Write a sequence for this structure.
């Protein structure tokens, strides 16, 4: 390393230490509330900028699937953007973007997570959107067929046509003989092609029950206003039985 590099390294270390000390000096308490339907809400206020991040964690992932339904959790990550009762196909994104927001989602072996980033002026709208798709997600056969092909195409490109994807899939299948971590989050192609409408509705009912979800809201909000909106939009949604516990263990 050159002397210039050493000076830069020292300056960087000093900056990190200053930031760390500043972070310890600040206090960001988290307020928590559990709605009557069992949904948990966490709120952390930060008024430094007029923006909000809202994440909804559903405790359902590929570990909650079975042979025949693998990949179905990931499928719903796609379907949750494809229309419900109030916000039809494509309208969720249009409404959010028109109000300065954006969104994304991801699926793991343990959870499915939906992410919203938006100005605080859109807070009421975001709660309206989230409640709509939790309560009244559309199961339109044409949309299901379309997203089924999207997921199948994703598997072909990220696994079947990618050496690293194939190797990673084989690694998990070898490491876990008994536990449901053994199959890929994207699912086996033969299962993707054969999910039934009954499979889909059952998985959605147990996975997207409010009692199976935790919402985390951080940004230019107060706990009182978030809890008020949660009670207005989310608390009336009935809960269902959660996914059965995964009890299978490795030797």
């Amino acid at each position: 390393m050159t002397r210039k590099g050493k000076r830069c390294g020292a300056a960087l270390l000093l900056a990190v230490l200053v930031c760390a000390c500043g972070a310890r000096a600040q206090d960001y308490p988290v307020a928590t509330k559990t709605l009557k339907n069992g949904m948990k809400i966490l709120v952390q206020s930060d008024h430094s900028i007029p923006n909000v991040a809202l994440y909804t964690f559903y405790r359902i992932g590929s570990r909650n699937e079975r042979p025949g339904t693998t990949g179905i959790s990931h499928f719903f990550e796609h379907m949750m953007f494809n229309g419900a009762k109030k916000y039809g196909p494509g309208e969720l994104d249009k409404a959010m973007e028109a109000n300065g927001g954006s969104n994304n989602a991801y699926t793991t072996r343990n959870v499915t997570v939906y992410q919203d980033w938006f100005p605080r002026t859109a807070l009421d709208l975001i709660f309206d959107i989230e409640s709509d798709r939790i309560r009244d997600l559309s199961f339109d056969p044409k949309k299901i067929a379309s997203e089924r092909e999207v997921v199948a195409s994703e598997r072909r490109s990220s696994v079947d046509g990618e050496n690293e994807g194939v190797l990673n899939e084989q690694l998990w299948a070898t490491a876990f003989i008994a536990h449901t971590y053994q199959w890929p989050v994207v699912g086996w192609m033969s299962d993707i092609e054969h999910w039934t409408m009954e499979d889909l509705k059952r998985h959605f009912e147990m996975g997207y029950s409010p009692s199976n979800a935790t919402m985390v809201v951080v940004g230019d909000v107060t706990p009182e206003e978030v809890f008020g909106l949660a009670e207005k939009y989310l608390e009336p949604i009935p809960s269902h039985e959660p996914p059965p516990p995964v009890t299978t263990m490795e030797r």
Remarks:
- The beta strands are 30-34, 40-45, 51-58, 102-107, 112-119, 213-219.
- Residues 1-7 have pLDDT under 50 and may be disordered.
